[in-house]
Amino acid sequence: MLKVENVSKYLGSFRLKDISFELPDGYILGVIGENCAGKTTLLRLLAGLYTEDEGSVELDGTGYGQAEAAVKQKIGAVFHGELFDMRDTLRCNARRYGQFYRDYEEELMESYMADFRLDAGRKYGQLSKGEKLKFALAFALSHRPKLLLLDEPAANFDRDFREMFRDILRKYTENGENMVALSSHMTSDIDRAADYLLYLETGSQVMYGDIEYIRGKYRMAAGEEYRIRLLKDRVVHLEKGEFGTKALVRNSGKPFDPMLKVWEPSIEELMYHVAKRED
Length: 279
What we know:
- The protein is α/β, with parallel strands linked by helices.
- The protein has two domains: about 1-215, P-loop containing nucleotide triphosphate hydrolases (Rossmann fold); about 215-275, no CATH class.
- The protein is about 30% helix and about 30% strand.
- The chain has helices at about 40-45, 70-75, 90-100, 105-115, 130-140, 160-175, 185-195, 210-215, 225-230, 265-275; strands spanning about 1-10, 15-25, 30, 55-60, 60-65, 75-80, 145-150, 180-185, 195-200, 205-210, 220-225, 235-240, 245-250, 260-265.
- The strands form three sheets. A six-stranded mixed β-sheet has the order 6-7-8-3-9-10, sandwiched between helices. Strands 2-1-4-5 form a four-stranded antiparallel β-sheet, with helices on one face.
- The model has no long low-confidence stretch (mean pLDDT about 95).
């Protein structure tokens, strides 16, 4: 289990404030939020690249500060940036950095590179941005981490590989032991892959929980404005458009006006309307 308790991190004027959640083994966490919400800061904390200023982070009951080297052996990460040697081939990069992980398997790495259509003899510096992220993903998976951290990788993947990517994540967690924390602007990936949802807003935690439970707490309602306004304090955010009015509303279990069109919100709809709300 990944346990984050009352974690805060201060980076200049930015504050990641009082983040708390638990991610059970075998599940995928989707981290959403607008730009500068704190998604990358959180994932870097989980990777051990940052040290929390307040609170604690534990993986399988061990705090990062207690046994940093042992904890990092259990973590695989895919972040943006040039993390490998630009002049070396993919195979040489994998061998060089793989030696730092006790569970690294060269055959597994070669298999992933073949599956991802990466030429192992090509130099890392010759890769496109999407190919570099595929290589980072292959390397992270090849040392069999307990916790896989993915910071906005999917936007740079082609459509076909995004389908493979989601399948990889499911297979990776199906043993009931591995976990994934995935941040993405592509909410369709979160919709289709994640089991838990963490929504951040300007460094603060807005909501966390089982993704289906969270969605079940809300509904989208569309129709005549006055009918939606009759829902009163159940309305989170209402928006008038050219062809009518729709709103995110709290699902109290009470029946809705039959003249309203009502549906369960997508993650994109949930994020959009929660961000637009007026507290």
